[in-house]
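check these tokens.
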Amino acid sequence: MRAADCAASLARWSQRDPFGQILAAQVEEWRAADDRTLEMRLKRPFPLLLDAPAKPDSNVPFMMPERLARTDAGTQVSKVIGSGPYRFMRDEFVSGSRVVYMLNDRYRPRDEPSDWASGGKVAHFPRIEWHILPDPATAAAAL
């Protein structure tokens, strides 16, 4: 992941996310000073600068290659690239019904304890399947 990837990803995210929009109103420029240095040049001080992109709940700013992050913010990114402990299995995906992830054998967790949304993430399961049950009564009965 390069700083240019992060700058483009944050710029894209900030067009859709309400907190990102507040941040973007204060950002003069998102740029990569070099491959490892991301700069967010502000118009004026913004005390929540670190809180906006660091939020671990809905609509987090996922980092993606710059070529994908340049996709219009209103258009779904069609290519999924992951670097975490699991790989998305596109060939087993059934929209509205099932999502499958397999253990990524190339993933190496950081050598530190896990602490909610940070730290080393150890994958304990070789396969994860999410079965989507949109009907609340069916979901309750399945439990």
Notes: The longest helix spans residues 3-16. Residues 15 and 48 are 17 Å apart (CA to CA). The two ends are 40 Å apart (CA to CA).
